[in-house]
Amino acid sequence: MTHQPFEDRREPTRLADIISADEIHPTFGQQVRNGLGGLVVLLVTGVLIVALVLWKSP
Questions:
Q1: Do 48 and 56 form a contact (C-beta atoms < 8 A)?
Q2: Max intra-chain CA distance, the chain
Q3: Can you tell me the distance from the alpha carbon of 49 to that of 2, in angstroms, rounded to the nearest whole number?
Q4: pLDDT in tens, 15-35
Q5: Which residues neighbour 34 within 8 Å (Cβ) at sequence distance 6 or greater?
Q6: How big is the CA angle at 50 (ends 49 and 54), to the nearest 5 degrees?
Q7: HSE-up (13 A, CA, CB side) for residue 54
Q8: Inter-CA distances, 54 with 8, 33, 47, Å
Q9: What is the full DSSP assignment across 1-58?
Q10: What global pTM score does this model have?
Q11: Residues 45, 49: Cα–Cα separation, whole Å
């Protein structure tokens, strides 16, 4: 491939995680609540869009 010599010369860079001193890890229950809350928001948004489309259709 034509780009291979350029890739070989490039320095290997990796993204490093930035970890702050006060970083907390959410509990399993909090993750479940956040997931269910997001699911409800998406469900309500979808139902509203479908209702709006059906209401505006002839």
A1: no
A2: 62
A3: 48
A4: 667 777 777 888 999 999 999
A5: 26
A6: 120
A7: 6
A8: 56, 31, 10
A9: -TTHHHHHHSPP--PPP---TT--PPPHHHHHHHHHHHHHHHHHHHHHHHHHHHHH--
A10: 0.56
A11: 6
